[in-house]
Fold each of these.
Amino acid sequence: MTHPLVLFDFDGTLADSFHLFLDAWTHAAQRHGFRPVDTTDLDRLRRLGARDIVAEVGLPLWKLPAVVATMRAYVRERADEVKLFDGVPEVLHALKAGGARIGIVTSNARDTVERVLGDDCRPLIDHWGCGASLFGKAAKTRRVMKAAGAVADRTVSVGDELRDLEVAQSLGLAFVAVAWGYTAPDRFAGLAGVRLCAAPGELPALVFRP
């Protein structure tokens, strides 16, 4: 592969959807019988991984598929409330201009992602890996890479969660952690192989860095 493949997470990385995620989580908690997120405890929760949060709220793993489906449907109904972070469109255009191919790997539904990207950014996406299960992003990432004919040392993963980092490490991918997402940025600071991005405008340089 001549040009790098850049695989983005969506929620919290490209799209400012945290407020809607919290609402969707509360809605799913009421429907499926687990504890909602304590919004007074967000600073601590942002330092935890997804598995820790799932265990803390008393959500059995066997319920996860139904919970994710409920949240996905809730977000779809309110997708117009979600906007891309400032600077993201410019970043996507800059990556394309630099020769990168762009993919999205997310638990969100593709139709929701396309609505948020809009007519300007939607055509910039070359590969889609939407609808991943909560802990199924590694398999979805492998499928996207295979479809793209991509190799690990020419693929960069960009995300905002510890599970995104875990996927990248398991597949041998370079990882860029964004500081504006769900996970507290200091959880990524100093980790081997992690490039921490403080603002969207820094992404192209970090992605194209050898």
Amino acid sequence: MFAKVHHVAIICSDYERSKEFYTKTLDLKIIEETYRKERDSYKLDLAVGNHTQIELFSFPNAPERPSYPEARGLRHVAFEVTDLEEAVQQLLKKGVSSLEEIRVDELTNKRFTFFEDPDGLPIELYEK
């Protein structure tokens, strides 16, 4: 029934800060940016590879995430990488300080790590 995940939607607290993080730090490409005056809200469509998108929204007074990372609902966003060490080094060079130690998934034996976006959303890097 489903062919792929089309997009993941993220609501941020500071649009310009999050836009810079996702486009400059994570190097995601902008597909389209829209300002909706009636909502005082931006919507930024970002390409993740050739098949998936992130929709970055800003809404006035959005509530904070209740806990890390075990809140009900979306737990985290995961990006597949070919070389985990290289991806970690690139993020460190770009100032990402929230990187956790690299771990091994006990079910798949694949390596992974987590870091946070500017609002504390957990982001996983999962080695291919």
Amino acid sequence: MNKHLLRSQLRKARRALTSSQQQQAAVALCSQTLHQHAFRYAHHIAVYIANDGEISPHLIARTARRLGKQVYLPVVHGDCLRFRKAPAGAKMWRNRFLIPEPVPKYAEVSANRLDLVLMPLVGFDKCGNRLGMGGGFYDRTFACNLLRPKLVGLAHHLQEVDSLAVDNWDIPLNAVATDRQWLSV
């Protein structure tokens, strides 16, 4: 199946989840993540604000802040991402995709200074291949970073596929966390 069709089907499936199912998935995802070495020892963690049916890392972010970790959100900058500090209650504005991101008054950190990046995805396979939204923002951001943080894709379990076609620019994940499992790659 081509990426465009697969992307469409998987996005439709995750959007079909009820609010209650989304909340339960966020709780289960948090539980899967908090016990992992990658989370426990990370001090600088990037998350995202769930959009379009994505599984939400908001409980992970809340717990990270409570534990004294620094939490960052991606900010679209040209065709790449920057990461801006996101304290609880941070003032936000919407980017060109209408996704909230922290306003410029919050400090930015370079991608290679992050310890852990929890990123959204549309589909994944057991080899750690990630199907994103198709814009390539995460791939371009981490392609030129030799000191790459741990990259963990977050997804609903129903977003797993048998295998994904990989392009030479695709950056592989170190792990995938879902509401049912933590899959180290």
